[in-house]
Amino acid sequence: ESLYKEQEKVETLEKELEDLKSAHHELEEKYADAERKLQNEAYEERIEDLEMQNEELPNQTTDLEATNDEANRKIKMLEDDLYKAETNSDYFESKVKDL
Length: 99
Known about the structure:
The chain is an all-alpha fold and 99 residues long. Helices cover 98% and strands 0% of the residues. The chain has one helix at 2-98. The N and C termini lie far apart (141 Å). The relative contact order is 0.04. The mean pLDDT is 94.
């Protein structure tokens, strides 16, 4: 009878061990799911950030084009001024030589 009781205890302990292993496995799966969910949320936030940056690109491009156009206008004005100065310089040099 004592051997029978010991056998029952062993079977009970083995059942408890199997239950604990099963619960442990379930917890590991839940943990892995939670990690994937957090990672997905981080990816979704990153995607949203990139989409917002992408939406801003046309505005930034327009601003850069306007800045570039203004710079080109200034360069053209400076080139015109330089040409006038060179032309005037040549004119005055020829006048000085004539004198």
